[in-house]
Design a protein that fits this description.
This protein has helices spanning 15-26, 33-46, 54-63, 91-100, 104-118, 130-134, 148-161, 168-183, 206-231, 238-258, 284-290, 308-316, 329-340, 365-373, 410-429, and strands spanning 4-8, 29-32, 66-71, 74-79, 82-83, 123-127, 140-145, 197-200, 260-264, 273-277, 296-301, 320-322, 344-347, 376-383, 391-396. It is of the alpha/beta class. It folds into two domains: 3-230, Rossmann fold; 233-429, Glycerol-3-phosphate (1)-acyltransferase, CATH 3.40.1130.10. The radius of gyration is 29 Å and the shape is elongated. Bound molecules: 2'-deoxycytidine-5'-monophosphate (DC). 2'-deoxycytidine-5'-monophosphate binds next to helix 2, helix 4 and helix 8. The site of 2'-deoxycytidine-5'-monophosphate (DC) has 15 residues, from helix 2, helix 4 and helix 8.
Length: 432
């Protein structure tokens, strides 16, 4: 597993400085992807190849050996074994690097290399297309920006410190050209990823930017730790089974004290099935779980796990956490596993409490799994006011049998979802 912080933005926004500080502070491997393109550009100059000789440039990018090392807290760039850390920042390299990096094949070769450099490491990577192309699923995505004038001023100062003298006007012109070129590449052009955090650094010091990004990284790490805890599977031990039986008995008794439970129909005694019910409140799922001999494993939104006691109960009853509004592959995998092992999965297709009444969009996750696996769906209608000492009806309908489809299309999913929902509604409206 690797943790990836991706930072994109135009030249002069402080990406390099910020990345260096954060890498050191947080123990992340620093990968300056611009340096890889600069190495190709330097090799083009060394071999006296013109920008028109595309095939030769592509060949260079294919065979070039680039290493990024950290020595005495400085990043060292090795090109075919030679230290070129300073050389790749020369005016000549800077002049041609954007055009070199615009060649599609060069980009593909460099992206391949950049991904290899990051493999199985915790990295902080800066460039132009890291958040959008190299690592579109990075854990943290940042877009740094600043006004052109501010960026020109910064670069001028940086150059002066290195003894490089380029006038402000010349710098502004070349940076502007580079920006335009970087924004208009065939692949991996500079743009703001829809899920990146945008930070305008025009009026911020490097420290302020580092603090901002540091906080985002810290929050993300905490979130990952928390999710790990929620998603951790507690193995089915004798002790867990015993505790579950005790808890089930107690909650069952409480339920019977507060409500007059009327149950009609039942879940098939064996084989995999998906129980689909309407969702009225927090305790209707409990009614299905408690009053069944078979273990029903419900899919529930992960926020349920935020409370200590509910988290404990959810793990005890093997509830499957799902992140709402996202494609939660882990939840899907676990649900399919329940079905493939011949057990009972519980889903509220409304997705939210009183979804039908609120006109919520009905999810087709249940229909998808039923069709993909050819598993029958047991529709359940739950009705009652859930006021203490009133009747609560739980009506199980006849299982709906679906034929297995390898890749159900939208229409098939919608049709199956409608069929499930209509049966559920019919069962909830049934009179005594
Ligand atoms: O960040 P830098 O100035 O060292 O980048 C050098 C050039 O490489 C710049 O013009 C844009 C290009 N580049 C790119 O196209 N994609 C990246 N991921 C990084 C840099």
């Amino acid at each position: 597993m690797s943790f990836i912080v991706a930072i994109d933005g135009p030249a002069g926004t402080g990406k390099g400085a910020v990345t260096k500080i954060l890498a050191e502070k947080l123990g992340l491997v620093n990968i300056d992807t611009g340096a890889t393109y600069r190495c190709v550009a330097l090799e083009v100059l060394n071999k006296k190849i013109s920008l028109e000789q595309k095939d030769e440039i592509i060949e260079i990018s294919k065979n070039i050996k680039i290493e990024l090392k950290n020595e005495n807290r400085e990043q060292i760039v090795l090109l075919n074994g030679k230290d070129v850390t300073s050389e790749i920042r020369s005016k000549e390299v800077t002049q041609i690097v954007s055009q070199v990096s615009s060649i599609k094949e060069v980009r593909l070769n460099m992206v391949d290399l950049q991904r290899k450099l990051a493999k199985n490491k915790n990295v902080i990577m800066e460039g132009r297309d890291i958040t959008t192309y190299v690592f579109p699923n990075a854990d943290v995505k940042i877009y740094l920006d600043a006004s052109l004038d501010e960026r020109v001023k910064r670069r001028y100062k940086q150059n002066a410190e290195k003894g490089i003298h380029i006038s402000l006007e010349e710098l502004k012109k070349s940076m502007n050209e580079r920006d335009e070129n970087d924004k208009n590449k065939e692949i991996g052009s500079l743009m703001i990823a829809h899920d990146a955090v945008y930070i305008d650094t025009s009026n911020l010091s490097i420290n302020e930017v580092c603090n901002k990004i540091g906080k985002i990284i810290k929050d993300k790490l905490e979130d990952i730790e928390y999710t790990k805890k929620i998603y951790a599977i507690r193995p089915e031990t004798k002790w867990k089974k015993f505790v579950r039986r005790i808890v089930k008995t107690i909650l069952n008794a409480l339920y019977h004290i507060f409500y007059r439970i009327k149950i009609e129909g039942e879940i098939p005694k064996e084989g995999a099935c998906i129980v689909c019910a309407n969702h009225l409140n927090y305790i209707d799922a409990a009614a299905i779980v408690l009053f069944n001999k078979r273990k029903v494993m419900f899919v529930a939104r992960e926020t349920l796990f935020y409370s200590r006691i509910l988290n404990w109960l959810a793990h005890l009853f093997d509830i499957i956490p799902i992140k709402r509004g996202k494609q939660d592959m882990e939840a899907m995998k676990r649900s399919l596993k329940v079905l493939s092992s011949g057990q009972v999965l519980g889903i509220f297709p409304e997705g939210t409490r009183k979804g039908l009444a609120k006109n919520a969009k009905i999810g087709n996750g249940a229909a998808y799994m039923a069709l993909r696996t050819g598993t029958k769906v047991v529709p359940v209608g739950i009705s009652g006011s859930f006021k203490p000492f009133t009747k609560v009806y739980i009506r199980y309908g006849e299982p709906i049998v679906f034929e297995k489809q390898k890749n159900p299309d939208k229409e098939q999913l919608q049709f199956a979802t409608n069929q499930i929902m209509e049966t559920i509604i019919m069962l909830t409206n049934k009179k005594d």
